[in-house]
């Protein structure tokens, strides 16, 4: 089996509750994200209350539903414009 075949054969099904994160949890996540980004030079982002992100065709691969809060693991762009 090739890597591409393995990716196509595997799938995830995740259903999440439509329940807001408590403010103390959001504050703790944001503080830790800021700390990790500063120490490691990363660009992690906390996205809140955005239900449309997992509705595109590519996101349907994982069969996620009810997702509105998530972390983005984005690399900084290099000098040639590509993400690390």
Strand-pairing-aware structural class = alpha+beta
**Mean residue pLDDT:** 81
Span of the ends, CA to CA: 28 Å
Q: How many DSSP H or I helices? A: 2
List the helices and strands and how they pair.
Blueprint (H helix, E strand, L loop, with lengths): L2 H7 L4 E2 L7 H18 L2 E5 L16 E2 L4 E5 L10
Parallel strand pairs: 1-3
Antiparallel strand pairs: 2-4
Model description:
- By secondary structure, the protein is α+β, with helices and mostly antiparallel strands.
- The chain has one domain (3-74).
- It has helices at 3-9, 23-40, and strands at 14-15, 43-47, 64-65, 70-74.
- The longest helix is centred in the middle third of the chain and has 18 residues, at 23-40.
- The protein is flat, with a radius of gyration of 16 Å.
- The two termini are 28 Å apart.
- The model has no long low-confidence stretch (mean pLDDT 81).
Kindly summarize this structure in a few lines:
The protein has 84 residues and is of the alpha+beta class. It is 30% helix and 17% strand. It contains 2 helices and 4 strands, in the order H-E-H-E-E-E.
Q: What distinguishing features does this structure have?
A:
2 helices; two-stranded antiparallel ribbon; 17% strand; single chain; two-stranded parallel ribbon; flat; 84 residues; alpha+beta; 30% helix
């Amino acid at each position: 089996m090739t890597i591409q075949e393995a990716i196509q054969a595997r799938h995830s099904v995740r259903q999440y509750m439509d329940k807001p994160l408590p403010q103390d949890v959001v504050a703790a996540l944001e503080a830790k994200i800021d700390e990790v980004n500063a120490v490691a030079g990363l660009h992690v982002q906390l996205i809140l209350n955005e239900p449309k992100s997992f509705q595109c065709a590519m996101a349907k691969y994982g069969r996620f539903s009810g997702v509105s809060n998530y972390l983005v693991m984005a690399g900084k762009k290099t000098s040639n414009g590509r993400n690390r």
